[in-house]
Each structure stands twice: as C-alpha cells, then as structure tokens.
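User: Please predict the structure of the protein below. I'd like the answer in structure-token form so I can feed it into my own downstream comparison script.

Assistant: Understood. Taking the following sequence of 113 residues as input:
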Amino acid sequence: MPAPRTDLCFHALGDGVRRTILDRLSAGELSAGAIAEGFDISWPAVSRHLRLLKEARLVEERREGRQRIYALNRGTLQQTVGHWVALFDARWADNLRSLKDHVERSQPPRGRP
C-alpha cells in the first residue's frame, strides 16, 4: 500500500494547474504573484493550489518582506515520484530478463536440424 505522503504527492500532481506551477518553478524561485500570472483562474484558486503543493512538500515557501517566494522541492520529487518510477523500471527489467530466458529456453539448440 502506498505511503500517505506518496498519495498526497500524486494527488497534487494529478492537476494540470499544479503541474504547470511545478514546471514554472523548475526554472527557479518565483513569487506567488508571478506564479499566478498567466492563469485564467482566481487568486484564491492559485493560492489553494500552492497550499496543496506545500502540503505535499513539492514546493517550499519563504517570506521576503510582504511577498511569498516559492521554490520547487526537488528532493521530494525524487524521493516519491522518482522512487516510484524506479520501482517500475526494475520490474520491467526483471520481466524482460524473464521473457528473454523463456524465449532462449524455447528455442531448439542451434546447429541441430
């Protein structure tokens, strides 16, 4: 069963607006106002998206005067999403090795008609 933190991360990643926010933050830190620019949604909606990303620990927030500055938390992405993808990669590699072994055992020996 997936850990609650993993579930929260994937829930956060399940929304296109939140993925766009993460994509924007991949280029560097941004203020909340800069993040909200370009979205055709209300400021409270953007704020809710940022709060969920913060709860999932996908972004970090710091205050600079009256502004809130957000940064991508690459560690959480690697620990949750990266780890989950690595598990699938390992399973696929094992499955491909098993298939290769099966095919090789099914082949008649070479050199014999």
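That's the full token string. Residues 31 and 65 are 11 Å apart (CA to CA).
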